[in-house]
Amino acid sequence: PATPAPVPATPAPVPATPAPVPDTPQPTPADTPAPTTGPPPEGACDITLDIKCEAQPGMEDCREAITGCMSETCSGSAPSQLCFRYTGQLCATTDPTGQISCMDTGNPIFPDSNPTVSFFDGDTELMSGSLRVGAVVCQDNPPSTLRIELMREDTGALFQEVTIDATCDAPGLNVKDFFGSLQLTSYTNAQEDCDCFPPVLYSYGLNNTGSVTLQVQTFNRTLNGSPNNLPPGPAIGPNGTILISENFRFAACEDITYTNMATVVALAVDGTQPPCDDTDTYEFTIMGG
């Protein structure tokens, strides 16, 4: 999925004058007991929802692990890894820092195609694989001059060739720059491990805290204003839990807040009413700009 838009920071206006309250309150019957909170009655539907966000591959909590980069420029020492995200773009009219050459050839490829990308040290192929838009590919211990070829999925014909100075010598390589259809997303060298688009995993735990088997009826989430209906999963037995997950890449080198709110509605498998529901929200802010 594309990088979610930040949630507006301006809260909704609150009326300055509260609504009037009647001078004389409505009478309350003396024998009406106050509501109490307790376990659901025997045979009742009851479900809870818990959202977790974890940064991969270490599976640390997103609030702790995603902090942006100290420097978005790879400089000072050679990188032990460079990672790129395929975007489907043509060569830019202005070369980014560190780019030696970029050449488009033949018919341009459609962004929704899956080209083959190959990394070379001179004429020696280092690695090769298929890409889709948004996918990230990494080259470990890149040579000082890294040559990248992209071939069409349908014909195998070369459609773009990029050559990069991968030494990170001054002025270095800037994360988020586009080298043809490949955007530099991260680098690792002696100075820093910088990833501006880290992979994250959202996990949704659906917990049956009642005494009857449940089937989820609806399950949806809204992440920074982008809604998605999630799969309901199998039936959940009493005291049982199922996990449903989604993968994303977040923009970690910007000032942005990610808010994910999910709601689940379930019903006993025998159709006994009423249904039960729960809502959970996971929110964190990145100060990476």
Task: Offer a quick outline of the entry.
The protein contains 1 helix and 20 strands. It is an all-beta fold. Strand 12 and strand 13 form a beta hairpin.
General description of the model:
The structure is a single chain. The chain contains 1 helix and 20 strands. The protein has one helix at 62-65, and strands at residues 47-55, 60-61, 73-74, 81-86, 99-104, 116-121, 124-130, 136-140, 145-151, 158-165, 173-174, 178-179, 182-188, 193-195, 199-208, 214-223, 226-229, 241-249, 255-268, 276-287. Strands 4, 8, 12, 13 and 14 form a 5-stranded antiparallel beta sheet that branches. A 5-stranded antiparallel beta sheet has the order 5-10-9-6-7, with no helix packed on it. A hairpin with a 4-residue loop joins strand 13 and strand 14 (193-195). Residues 1-37 have low confidence and may be disordered.
Helix content: under 10%
Instruction: Supply the helix-strand structural class.
Output: mainly beta
Low-confidence stretches: 1-37
Largest sheet: 5 strands, antiparallel
Distance between the termini: 21 Å
How many helices? The count is: 1
Strand content: over 45%
Strand-and-helix sequence, N→C? EEHEEEEEEEEEEEEEEEEEE
* Computed CA radius of gyration, to the nearest angstrom: 26 Å
Oligomer: single chain
Q: Please, what is the average pLDDT?
A: 84
Tally of strands:
20
Shape by Cα distribution: elongated
